[in-house]
Amino acid sequence: MTRLYKSAFVAIAAAAVLLLIPVSAWANDTVKIRDDCDPTTFNAAVPGTPPTCVGKGHTTFANFRAQLVDHKFAAKWRFSPDRVKIKQGRSLHLDNRGGETHTFTEVSSFEGGGIVPFLNQILFGTETPPTFFIAPLSFIPTGGADMIDTGTLSPGPHMFICAIHSWMHETVVVKAEKHDDD
User: Fold this and answer.
1) Are the C-beta atoms of residues 176 and 157 closer than 8 Å to each other?
2) Are the beta carbons of 106 and 158 closer than 8 angstroms?
3) Coil, strand or helix: which one is 146?
4) Are the C-beta atoms of 106 and 154 separated by less than 8 Å?
5) Residue in 38, 139, 151, 154 with CA at minimum distance from that of residue 94
6) Which of 52, 57, 72, 95 could disulfide-pair with 46, CB 3.0 to 4.6 Å?
7) Distance CA 153, CA 42 (A)
């Protein structure tokens, strides 16, 4: 019976501690940027310095291209999660866990294209589709990180894309910060 009381006490104490942690500490304030590029085939198809792909992915360039032709997106190139809610004034962290460079660029519509002509040609049938960039491009290299101060964003939904891989969409919903006099 003593063991049961000890277990109950530990459970109640743990619950009390969890209640003391502000809910905002549990908020998802990190967007992971992901891809699955195979460095051998990507770097052969798109040579350059620095290399296009420095990751350890398994999607070959031919498979990547086939996904774009068939589906207009490559499934493993994504923001995770693809929708976040965050209080205004908090920092939204961006963590590039992929093998390629990406951007996190605010746009006024998800309908536009990106900055890579051959990807635009596959996706939209033209190398220069309309773009709807609101903010300047900020490149995040593989293994890199960036941060957005949501204090600079108005309350409400904001749309972001990777300007290189324009099917990568993120919606950031900014919730107005409550003030003591509200």
Assistant:
1) no
2) yes
3) strand
4) no
5) 139
6) 52
7) 36
